Amino acid sequence: MQQLTQYGIRKMMTNKHTHRIRCVINDKEYDRIVKDNTLLVDFLREELGLTGTKVGCDGGECGCCTVLIDGHPQHACLTLASRCNDVEIETIEHLNRSGRLSAIQRGFHEKHGSQCGFCTPGFIMAAEGLLRKNPDPSYREIKKGLGSNICRCTGYVKIIEAVQFAAKEIKRMEIEKEIENQRYAGML
User: Fold this and answer.
1) What is residue 13's predicted lDDT score, i.e. its pLDDT?
2) pTM of the complete model
3) pLDDT at 4
4) Per-residue pLDDT at 167
5) Does residue 85 surpass a pLDDT of 80?
6) What is the per-residue pLDDT across 23-64, written as a single tens digit (0 to 9) for each?
7) Going edge to edge, which strands form the sheet with 66-69?
8) Which residues contact 92 (CB under 8 A, 6 or more apart)?
């Protein structure tokens, strides 16, 4: 965990417009002082260098800044960093932690789910949250799950196909893992 310095604690005690937050971001613990008005998107990008979270509309309308907070998609441009105490935050950088693309990232690659790519991290994080909640979503459920995200370059067909691909890929990987576990246990 990154510890506060004595200077940081003194600064927090003298400035009534700051908060100390402790949270986990992409499996790493943070202990920081943030101003009351610091948006989560700015904290992630400017303080932590996690620039995969994009700034689009600054008003919660486009979804480019979508991150997962305790597993739920949230717009980082509408979330105050000071409200993120004792939460777990995941950004697009977290999905690639093994050095391999996640199922949803592969889906966007295989199905050409991105055009210019600016909105892609937000769509991927929204889809990741959806697939964790509902691993086999219908077409309608995918549209609803991605409804807070806007792409200005495409007609969404390829994005929905990417999520469908990822859902099938996740199911395939789970079946393969179960077969491997059964082999290991001597059941097959």
Assistant:
1) 44
2) 0.86
3) 52
4) 97
5) yes
6) 999 999 999 999 999 999 999 999 999 999 999 988 899 999
7) 28-35, 18-25, 88-90, 66-69, 72-75
8) 52, 53, 121, 124, 125
Quick one: pLDDT at residue 102? 93
**Residue 34 parent element (H or E):** strand 28-35
* Domain 101-188: CATH architecture, name and number where available: Orthogonal Bundle (1.10)
Q: What is the rounded distance in angstroms from the CA atom of residue 107 to the CA atom of residue 180?
A: 24
Which CATH number is associated with domain 1-95?
3.10.20.30
Question: To the nearest 10°, the Cα dihedral for 99, 103, 105, 111?
Answer: 140
- The mean predicted confidence, pLDDT, of the chain is 90
Q: Where exactly are the structural domains of the chain?
A: 1-95, 101-188
Interacting residues of 38 by C-beta distance below 8 A, sequence separation 6+: 80, 81, 82
Q: Which two tokens stand for residue 23?
A: 């949270």
Task: Please state the three-class secondary structure of 61-102 as a single string.
Answer: CCCCCEEEECCEEEECCCCEHHHCCCCEEECHHHHHCCCCCC
Q: In terms of Cα–Cα distance, which of 37, 35, 3, 38 is closest to 22?
A: 3
Indicate the length of the chain as a whole number. Answer: 188
Q: Of 88, 171, 57, which Cα lies nearest the Cα of 163?
A: 171
